[in-house]
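step 3/5: co-fold with S-adenosylmethionine
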Amino acid sequence: MPTIGDLSLYFHLPFCRKKCPYCDFYVVTDPSLKTSFLKGILQELFFYSSLLENSRLVSIYLGGGTPSVFPEGCEKILQALSPFIDPSVEITCEVNPEDLSEELVSRLKQAGVNRLSIGVQSFQRPLLNVIKRPFPSVEAIEKAHKTISNLSIDKLEIVLWAFSIASTLGKGLLITLRRGL
Ligand SMILES: C[S@@+](CC[C@H](N)C(=O)[O-])C[C@H]1O[C@@H](n2cnc3c(N)ncnc32)[C@H](O)[C@@H]1O
Ligand code: SF4
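step 4/5: write C-alpha cells
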C-alpha cells in the first residue's frame, strides 16, 4: 500500500458534567456510557489500523466534550496509538479549569499529552456568570500554571470564548485578553 502522507487525528470525547447553555457541540452527560463509547472508539481504531500503518502521524487532538472528566479514555486511546507515536507527535488534550490538578496533568503527561488546551473562556466573573461557567480564581489559574510548568508541559493554549458576548460587557474582553497573555 502506498504511503498516504501526514495524518492528524481528532477524537471527540463527548462527556461533560453538564451542558453549558451556549454550547453547540455534541455532549453527553451520562457517564455510564463511557465504557461502551471507549469500546467503539478502540474498535474503530483497529478498523483503520492499515491507514495508520501507511501514514505519518503528526498530531492527535483529544477534544470534547470534556476529555478532562475522562482521563482513562484519553489514556486508552493513546495506548492504542502508541505504536504510531514518536516524540515529534503533538498530542493535545482539552482540559476544563476546574479539573486542573497535579494528578490529572501528570496522568495525561504520562499518557503522552504534550500540549494542553484550557477552556478558561474569560477571567471576568460577570462574563462567566452570563455563560454559566464556574469562576476560576486567579490563584487557581496561577497554581495550574505552576503545575503545568513543573511538569514541563510547555505548549499551552488558553481558550477564551468571550468575543460574541463581550460587547454586552464593555471592556471585559480587553481585560480577559490581557490576563490570558
Ligand atoms: C467545545 S469546548 C470543549 C472543551 C471544554 N469542555 C471547554 O468547555 O472548554 C471547546 C471550546 O469551544 C468553545 N465553544 C463552546 N461553545 C461554542 C459555541 N457555541 N460557539 C463557539 N465556540 C464555542 C469554548 O470556548 C470552548 O472552550
Ligand atoms: S464543558 Fe465545554 S463541551 Fe461541555 S457543554 Fe460546556 S462548553 Fe460544551
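step 5/5: annotate
The beta strands are 5-13, 55-64, 90-95, 115-118, 155-158.
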